[in-house]
From TrEMBL:
Residues annotated as transmembrane: 26-44
Record's keyword annotation contains Transmembrane: yes
Keywords: Membrane, Transmembrane, Transmembrane helix
Superkingdom classification of source: Bacteria
Name of the protein: Holin
Length: 130
């Protein structure tokens, strides 16, 4: 309850020495702060860059960043595609070597039969897929 009385006495502007401030002092401080704000605004206004210039600079920066990001992505994509192609070549080479090894033990007639069987099976599979 004591703090409510303190607040009320401050708002009423009691003239004794315990009062923290009075209305005249508050009004003076508010006016001084407004004058200082206006003065700072008037002094700094000529030094500010126009908003249009800022928006153009931002647009240029964003466009440049988009192009850089695109180039970085294309470079990564190219490296990954090169690695995939290299691995595909290795897989094909391994398949060829496996085929040569498995056919090396066959006679010519057995090799021709195996080839015909493979061709027949792949043509049946293609017919089903279509």
């Amino acid at each position: 309850m004591n703090w409510i009385q303190s607040i009320l006495s401050v708002l009423k502007g009691v003239k004794d020495s315990t009062a923290l401030f009075d209305y005249k002092r508050i009004l003076q401080e508010v006016l001084v702060s407004i004058l200082v704000s206006v003065l700072v605004w008037v002094i700094l206004k000529p030094f500010k860059i126009e908003d249009d210039t800022n928006s153009r600079l931002l647009s240029i920066a964003l466009t440049t960043q988009r192009k850089l990001d695109s180039l970085n992505f294309q470079e990564k994509l190219h490296k990954q595609q090169a690695q995939i192609d290299s691995l595909n070549r290795v897989i094909i080479l391994h398949h060829e070597n496996d085929s040569l090894r498995s056919n090396a033990r066959l006679s010519k007639l057995d090799a021709i039969r195996a080839i015909n069987k493979y061709i027949t099976n792949s043509s049946k599979t293609e017919g089903r897929n279509q």
